[in-house]
Design brief:
The protein is α/β, with parallel strands linked by helices. It is 32% helix and 29% strand. It has helices at residues 49-56, 79-89, 105-115, 122-132, 148-161, 178-195, and strands spanning 4-16, 22-34, 38-42, 64-69, 72-73, 90-94, 166-170, 198-203, 214-219, 222-226. The strands form 2 sheets. The chain has a 6-stranded mixed sheet, sandwiched between helices. Strands 2-1-4-5 form a 4-stranded antiparallel sheet, with helices on one face. Strand 1 and strand 2 form a beta hairpin. Helix 3 (105-115) crosses helix 4 (122-132), helix 3 (105-115) packs parallel to helix 5 and helix 4 (122-132) packs across helix 5 (148-161). It is globular and about 50 Å long. The two termini are 17 Å apart.
């Protein structure tokens, strides 16, 4: 029986349209995210996958239902406790990369470690994760001196540096060419194996689906399949 890192229990998310009509972006989602696996949430644009990712990662709250991470229910946490959870136990990777443009790769990763109050040897860990993503020779380069794929690898190094339990990645390959996208996926698989991290990512790219350990398909706010 697989260990479960996160449970989504009857998650609904309702928005109010301009007309005043309610719109349910999520319609009662129940899923289990296994520990130390790469889980993919797949679906077309507007299917609800990013809304679900934001709720799973405590960036947003559901209208109904609850998220449980390692037996801790989000509904029983204060906003400060959720913020600490995001800062200390979770890593984020976004399509837009979101590196700080005035910092080089080393400094970007160091900034993430400082935010997470990392207590280990920061210099050693920064060099370790940049080597892990294949950027040892580029650690003192600025983001504008790197390709899109290299920038995304720095973002992944920053996300994993403080040794989070879970990484959430929203369309992390969306702005990359096919080869760079596949390299990112290969890196995710290696991180799961080497760092024992649980990764949850969204994508609508059919070429990437087979690389996930678990794939949930979302359509119109509902889970319509699991592979």
């Amino acid at each position: 029986m697989e260990n479960i890192m996160i449970q989504a229990k009857n998650i609904k998310k309702c928005f109010t349209l301009g007309s005043g009509e309610p719109f349910y972006a999520l319609k009662g989602i129940n899923i289990d995210i296994p520990t130390s696996k790469l889980t993919i949430l797949k679906g077309r644009s507007g299917s609800g996958k990013t809304t679900l990712l934001n709720i799973l990662s405590a960036l947003d709250s559901p209208t109904e239902g609850d998220i449980v991470i390692e037996d801790r229910a989000f509904s029983s946490m204060t906003e400060n406790q959720k913020e600490l959870l995001r800062r200390l136990e979770i890593g984020f990777v976004f399509q837009s990369v979101a590196l700080i443009p005035i910092m080089n790769a080393y400094e970007n990763v160091d900034f993430g470690l400082r935010l997470a109050n990392y207590e280990g040897n920061r210099d050693k860990r920064i060099k370790e994760v940049l080597d892990m993503v294949g950027l040892s020779s580029r650690m003192y380069h600025m983001p504008n001196q790197m390709s899109g794929g290299e920038q995304q690898r720095v973002a992944i190094a920053r996300a994993v540096a403080h040794k989070p339990k879970v990484i959430f990645a929203d369309e992390p390959t969306g702005a990359l060419d096919t080869a760079s996208g596949l390299n990112v996926m290969k890196l995710f698989k290696e991180l799961v194996a080497k760092e024992n991290i649980t990764i949850v990512m969204t994508t609508h790219d059919p070429n990437l689906m087979e690389l996930g350990d678990v794939v949930f398909e979302i359509e119109d706010g509902e889970i319509v399949g699991r592979d």
